[in-house]
């Protein structure tokens, strides 16, 4: 996990792998933090893929540090 806040747009949508890359951790670690802090990703209703918004990524990062 990076010590600096991830550079994300608050309204941006980031797939799980991209969100994990920006936070500097593995995708499984990102899922573990999200579940631990009660921040669940949004699911695209057309494709079924999960993503985090930039605001959610920032909240996870703040809670983990």
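Sequence proposed for the structure above (65 residues):
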């Amino acid at each position: 996990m990076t010590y600096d806040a991830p550079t994300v747009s608050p309204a941006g949508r980031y797939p799980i792998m991209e969100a994990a890359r920006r936070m500097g951790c593995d995708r499984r670690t990102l899922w573990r933090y999200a579940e631990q802090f009660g921040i669940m990703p949004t699911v695209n209703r057309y494709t079924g893929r999960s993503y985090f918004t930039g605001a959610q990524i920032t909240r996870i990062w703040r809670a983990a540090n």
